[in-house]
Amino acid sequence: MLEFLLRHDEAHIQASAIVFDIILILFSNVQVKNNKLGISFRNLLYCGTFLTIIETTLSWLEDLPNCALSFYVINSLNMLVYLLIITLGFGLAAYFELSFGSFNNKKIWTFNLIVFFAYVVILISNIFTDCISIFNLDTKVYTHGPLFYTVGVLFPVYSYGFCLFIFIRNFKNISTRIRPALSLTFLIIVVGIVLQPLVNGKITITGLLISIGMFILYMTVETHDYMRLIEANQKLLIAKEEAYNANKSKSAFLANMSHEIRTPLNAFLGLNDLIIEESMDFETLELAENIKSAGNALLSIINEILDISKIETGKIEIKNTPYNLGDIIRDIDVIIRTRAKDKGIPFIMDIDENLPNELIGDVAKIRQVIINVLNNSVKYTSSGAIVFTLRGSVQNNTLLLKMQIFDTGMGIKKEDLSHLFESYRRVDLKKNVNIEGTGLGLSIVKQSIDMMGGSISVRSNYGLGTCFYMEILQTIKSYETLHEYLHMQKQNRISKITDSFITPNANILIVDDNDMNIKVACGFLKSTKANLFTANGGPEGLDLLENNKYDIVFLDSFMPIIDGTQILKKIRSNPKNINYNTPIIVLTADALSGSKKKYLDQGFNDYLSKPVNASRLKEKLIKFLPKELIDLTNTTVKDNNLSTPKNIIKNEIVMPKLNNHPDNLVNWKEGLNLCRGNKTLYRELLDEFIRIKPEKRLEINNAFEKQDWDSYNILTHSLKSNAKTIGANLLSDAAMEMEYASRAILAGENINSNVALIKEKHRILLKLYDDVQEELLWISF
User: Fold this and answer.
1) DSSP secondary-structure letter at 603?
2) From the centroid of its chain, how far is CA 253?
3) How, if at all, do strands 584-588 and 552-556 pair?
4) How far apart are the two ends of the chain, measured CA to CA in Å?
């Protein structure tokens, strides 16, 4: 018996493959998970092992004597090999589909099933018809029948062709780590099946190569590590989806919160303003002023939460439009001077009046960042002064705005400086427990400045004060100076109405489903002596608009049954409507970014966000009512606006006796001015610059050597700001050039030319850094 087995050399290899397959089956049953994918893999393994067993058996059975039983046994097993080959083809396609695919076309899989069963019928008939292939016991060779190529070969080729189609179609969905393994598995199995007919009679290799392919598949795809990776990726995808949905829910919640909170807050603050206007009792007025202060603080907190939410969800974009720098200065003066005055703190504005006035940029964000930082200074300063300095440098039709905000407040601890711009983070809580705020103001400032491509830095001495320094690059639209613009504004103010007017013949309609909001609006407009008409809700408002003529309409946007937008569309869609051309102003608590544009695009004439106040309502009357309806007879004209800013009195700063030769690399006067003449603070800045220089220089050079442009960009950006703070303008400009070049590389813009620029000027930057350091070492006050 042993001699019989050993006569067939090809059977030895196949027998070894069978032993190997059995071991692999044992391991796969222990380690491969019992899910659809794992079951599919094991079925492939069973199928390949069965094929190898049959091929090995056929090698031995070919030596049987010629008889009918031997003929049917051998040829039945041979047809079973054909069947297992096509089964492996469709099985591999199903495995790839389960693993990585999304091909769920049931018609194609139904067609494949029909092909499979048709092939089974043909293989069974082959035993009796010799149509495909028959083994002849007399000659010991296989004889191909008339359908061998058209059926016996074509059907298996179709199955593996379909498998290849599935593999290629889903190739992008396959992890790059296992692409080579799957490709090799498919190739080895196909080679074994194609090669076998060519070497038949010499060696049997189909089962062997299938075993090798399944082993590769097991070791690379079906191991515990890979399955854990798949599960981890699935969990991450689920977590990502949940986080996305949660973020959408948060945004929706905040949008609703904006409306729900602002609506009652509108009534709350509006009614309180009426008390302040009309009450003659001192104690009542004092309480009402306290309510107003608390209400405005609450409104500020709501606005900050909404702002940070919009930034986090990417809904805020930079909107560059022309604006007047003088308007921002006037707003800052009005808002901050009032708040500082309430605390008894001098607010000083040091403005370079020769700066261009007409610029292009995001005026809302610039105004917000300046006011937020100044508000911080007011909150944390109890004595001394607050100084806002505005300077700039013009180059190639752009203005680099340089803003410094210095206060003599409580200062910031060194360990807290690194956390200063984090969201919802308030530093030194024990000392600041009575100071209101969300911890969002400076976070919004930092993110807004980053979005505009600017920079912000801070220096502070705990217990003595803090200095913020901001830089923002703006495009110049006109070279009219601030001095010229502010002087013209002052001349024009005489004609502005800043107190009151009457319009007794005007018919005004206020539509709102909230009674308190109606009372507030009516109370604000009471002094105008206008004819006020009100509607409590959309249906009543629409009825009035269809039957009565009004000169102006204030229309709430969010109302049940029929909202403001629907009312507007009905009025504007009917040219015969009596109020077809009447100005309609939307009143809404929807204060999210883009809301104003949305309502104006819908057809409203103007937009007022809640809570509204008397002056804003009256401004709309002046803007939209016919001039003949406005009576200015009893109007009191006041000029309470900002006059031309005065520079700080120079004798407030004691200048040190320093060598300020034009060839010096550090402009001591400019550096000291940035510190408001505080020699101690300036000395500390210089000492810090000297201390960190060796480490920073090494980091910059290492980043350059490694061509780590991300780190290089961050480091040169930092050097630019540090140098500018101490007055080392040449070094700051050189660092800025390297910063912009590395930023362009990261953005994929002119990579080769920017890399060449950095390589050319990097050594110059380091030499300038060294020279500044050397000059700093002998500075003395």
Assistant:
1) T
2) 19
3) parallel
4) 109
Cα gap 25→432, rounded to integer Å: 69
> What is the Cα–Cα distance from 508 to 506, expressed in whole angstroms?
6
Mean pLDDT per 10-residue run, the chain (781 residues)?
48 70 73 69 79 77 73 81 83 77 73 87 84 76 79 83 82 72 77 64 64 72 57 72 69 60 70 71 66 64 57 62 87 78 86 91 84 86 89 90 90 77 51 47 78 88 87 90 77 45 91 78 84 93 94 89 92 93 86 75 88 77 88 50 36 37 70 60 76 88 91 85 81 88 88 90 91 72 39
In a domain, 746, yes or no: yes
> What Å distances lie between residue 403 and 360, 387, 451, 468, CA to CA?
17, 10, 17, 8
Closest by alpha carbon to 170, among 99, 221, 91, 223? 99
**3-class DSSP state for residue 459?**
strand
Burial degree of 238 (CB within 10 A; 0-12, 13-18, 19+): exposed
User: Which residues partner with 553 through β-bridges?
Assistant: 509, 584
Cβ–Cβ < 8 Å for 729, 670 = yes
**Identity of the amino acid at 243:** A
**Same domain (yes/no): 474, 606:** no
Answer for the pair 117, 86: CB distance below 8 angstroms, yes or no: no
Count the domains in the chain.
4
d(CA 29, CA 751): 54
Q: How far apart are CA 438 and CA 423, in angstroms?
A: 9
Check whether residue 121 and residue 178 sit in a common domain: yes
Say yes or no: 344 and 478 in one domain.
yes
CA distances from 29 to 42, 178, 216 (A): 8, 22, 16
Phi, psi of 391 (to 5 degrees): -130, 180
Range of the domain at 558: 507-629
566 belongs to a structural domain? yes
Return the closest-CA partner of residue 124 out of 78, 65, 184, 172. Answer: 78
